[in-house]
Amino acid sequence: MYQAIVFLPLVGFLIAGLFGRSIGAKASEYVTTGLLIVSAVLSWIAFFAVAMGDGEAFTVPMLRFIESGALQSDWSLRIDTLTVVMLVVVNTVSALVHVYSIGYMHHDPHRPRFFAYLSLFTFAMLMLVTSNNLVQMFFGWEGVGLASYLLIGFWYKKPSANAAAIKAFVVNRVGDFGFALGIFGVFVLFGSINLDTVFANAATFLPVEGADHGDVALNFLGYALDPHAALNIVCLLLFMGAMGKSAQVPLHTWLPDAMEGPTPVSALIHAATMVTAGVFMLARLSPLFELAHVALLVVTFIGALTAFFAATVGLVQNDIKRVIAYSTCSQLGYMFVAIGLGFYSAAIFHLFTHAFFKALLFLGSGSVIHAVSDEQDMRKMGGLRKLIPTTYWMMVIGTIALTGVGIPATVIGTAGFFSKDAIIEGAFVGHNALAGFAFAALVIAAVFTSFYSWRLIFMTFHGKPRATADVMHHVHESPPVMLVPLFVLAVGALAAGFLFHDWFIGHEYDHFWKGALFTLPDNHILHEFHEVPMWVKLSPLVAMLLGFFTAWHFYIRSPNTPKALAERHRGLYLFLLNKWYFDELYDFLFVRPAKRLGHFLWKKGDGWLIDGFGPDGVSSRVIDVTQRVVKLQSGYLYHYAFAMLIGVAALVTWMMLGGAN
Fold first, then answer.
1. What is the pLDDT of residues 366-403, one digit of tens each?
2. Average pLDDT for 492-514
3. Which of 29, 246, 331, 660 is 20 to 30 Å from 324 by CA-CA measure?
4. What is the CA radius of gyration of the chain?
């Protein structure tokens, strides 16, 4: 069964990719979608058998992969609760995106290629989450990077799509370089990259408290590191990979630009699955990170900073997909804060619920874009509520789930209410030195999240229509093939938190996780977050209401206020609109110097030096000499006779002078 879950998407990719032109677009759609639905159903069966049942974790051997000295890496599937949770997330969202894409991409002439790419991405992600060693994980890690490049640049005739695809690929290479170094470091420290061996060795790796720091464990950049420092450095390198893949500051700049791909791509890759790979990787490696306290501090800081930063930028964006993209970036910050606090189960719980409501929002925005003739600027929408009511209510459900609507201290609430509030409460009781900073940043981010989420709803669906009469005349509801996936995701956005709260972070924790996540005995956050004061439990609710009423005042009651406020605080508005000028900063620090260096090496290094004095230069001088010699060949007989006389005269003179000496 587990082999089928992983390899059915690969079969779909091969069929659509190799034979798409032969079998046609319809057949490619149905084959890939059907195989993904089967894989999703099997994933839920595995979830209830492994996570909800009494089964223990196990591995499914596949084949021998790499054997080189002490490095051994067999290809096998690691099946435990963390794996099956990710299988459910990846395959459920992917199957629904496949179904949705049948309607959304209906007019595209390259549908077989699109569906092949979707299935390839899903297979790579499945390889990542089922990995039993770090090399196998890196294989899947790079696979989703490749698939995201292909999908973001799917409309390759658009220069902006090509630029976005290249940007995503390059920025992720920066993070992946750190990830690769981290894998090397793990092998140096523990003598293996197999997870079971690494975890077993990590338990006894650090010296006991009070003992000597131990011998040098790692030499890094010329520094001899003891075991504590070495483990922190290795975990920071691994986290660098997560920062790139999961769009954390400062490696976040690719995510908003990735909206250039088709909307189903945004829902699949950049909301529910690929960007959560970093969160999954850190949770999988929790036995290492629990021992690296400095690394956890950095994870907490970066997560809190990203949650706040992305939420501030989302306040003023006008592209409907970019608003949701920055929301994704911000929510990933919440997950990393939970990781940094050692609250791994809350991070995975929010990953699980976030997949439903964020995919719902992205697909819902796709339905809006489909209705208004591919327009994405919310300033050119408005008044759509009665024209596309089903899409409107699906977007509202996604919004109340994202903003965490619920009643504190009860079991009444949406998915985001249970998972996001748990992280905020965990930050309040966390023993991390930066827990207080994280708590404040997350609560402020919650205010901003509510504001920009309801701003999107009000600007898109309420008020007077701002589109042209021709566009408004053609506004229509999406077909059932696009709406049915929204209904399924809406159920998850409303009920996933209530149904699975006790299993992920409640009293069924031990029975559910079965040791798949590791925490130190002195990490009591799982118990302490239940005991926070009532004002802490109320803070996310107050934040949500504050954001909602501010958005209502700005965009329903007094629509002229936002423009007046932006003009009054022009500098701040431009600072947020330009995303804190990260792109401009990187352009100044990296892009322009790289271009200048390239131009110098081209003109001076290659042109002047190599071409001037190398093989091209020698050949040019030979040509110059021969051209001058050729000019002596005039073709006139008297010229040749004259040259001969000059030669004879010179020879006689030389002989006479030579004889005289």
1. 899 888 887 888 888 888 888 899 999 999 999 999 99
2. 90
3. 29
4. 31
- 371 and 476 Cβ atoms separated by less than 8 Å: yes
Mean pLDDT of 548-554: 93
Q: For 161, how many CA atoms within 13 A lie in the half-sphere containing its CB? A: 16
Alpha-carbon distance of 418 to 401, in angstroms, equals 10
Per-position DSSP letters for 463-532, written without gaps between them: SS--S-HHHHHT--PPPHHHHHHHHHHHHHHHHHHHHHHHHHHSTTHHHHHTTSS---TT--HHHHGGG-
Instruction: Report how far residue 385's alpha carbon sits from residue 331's, in angstroms, rounded to the nearest whole number.
Output: 27
User: Residue 644 burial (CB < 10 Å; 0-12/13-18/19+)?
Assistant: exposed
| For residue 210, pLDDT beyond 60 | no
Spatial distance between the Cα atoms of 560 and 547, rounded to a whole number of angstroms: 18
Per-residue burial over 283-321, b if 16 or more Cβ lie within 10 Å, else e, is bbbbbbbbbbbebbbbbbbbbbbbbbbbbbbbbbbeebb
Give this prediction's pTM: 0.89
Amino acid letter for position 114: F
Residue 133 CA to residue 126 CA, distance in Å, equals: 14
The tokens of 172 are what? 């992720």
Query: What's the one-letter identity of residue 651?
Result: L
CB of 8 closer than 8 Å to CB of 36: yes
- Residue 634: phi and psi, rounded to 5, are -85, -25
Amino acid at 306: T
Do 404 and 414 contact (CB within 8 A), yes or no? yes
Three-state SS at 275:
helix
Please provide the average confidence, as pLDDT, over all residues in the chain: 88
H-helix or E-strand spanning residue 65? strand 58-68
Q: At CA 308, angle to CA 304 and CA 310, rounded to 5?
A: 115
Residue 233: both structure tokens together = 């450095």
How much helix, strand and coil, in percent to the nearest 5, is found in the chain? 75, 5, 20
The three-class DSSP label of residue 57 is coil
pLDDT higher than threshold 70 for residue 212: no
Condensed to tens digits (0 to 9), the pLDDT of residues 150-166 reads: 999 888 888 888 998 99
CB neighbours of 256 closer than 8 A, spacing ≥ 6? 322, 325, 326, 329, 579
CA distance 98 to 485: 9
d(CA 500, CA 502): 6
- Alpha-carbon distance 59 to 477, whole Å? 46
Other CB atoms closer than 10 Å to residue 70's CB: what's the count?
A: 8
- Residue range 329-373, pLDDT digits in tens: 999 999 999 999 999 999 999 999 999 999 999 999 989 988 888
Which amino acid is it at 309? F
